[in-house]
Design brief:
It is built from three helices and no strands. By secondary structure, the chain is an all-alpha fold. It has a domain of 46 residues. 8% of the residues are buried.
Length: 97
């Protein structure tokens, strides 16, 4: 965790990944797709570490999704990202408890 205060009930929990740029189709200015994905994974894991309910919802849904990936026409890389994100969330130190 970064030591930031967790949002309280009713507070904004949105995650900003940077400023959007019209020149690159609305993505994060100067960021590659890998940078954006890595930042999103880090933000998700930090949010989950600070909120047990959110952690539980994310991990349960990722586990269910992982169990049903065979139903979808996805690349192996895309399928692997579900497990990768679940691992990143599990590795983040818990701020609750």
């Amino acid at each position: 965790m970064t030591g930031q205060r967790s949002p309280g009930k009713g507070e904004d929990r949105s995650v900003s990944l940077g400023e959007e740029s019209a020149a690159d189709g609305g993505g994060v200015a100067g960021a590659t797709t890998a940078d954006t994905v890595e930042e999103a994974e880090r933000s998700i894991s930090e949010l989950c570490a600070s909120d047990w309910g959110l952690w539980r919802a994310f991990t349960a849904n990722l586990q269910t999704l992982g169990a049903h990936l065979g139903r979808y026409e996805l690349t192996e890389e895309s399928k692997g990202r579900v497990g990768t994100l679940l691992g990143i969330i599990e590795e983040e130190p818990e701020a609750f408890g």
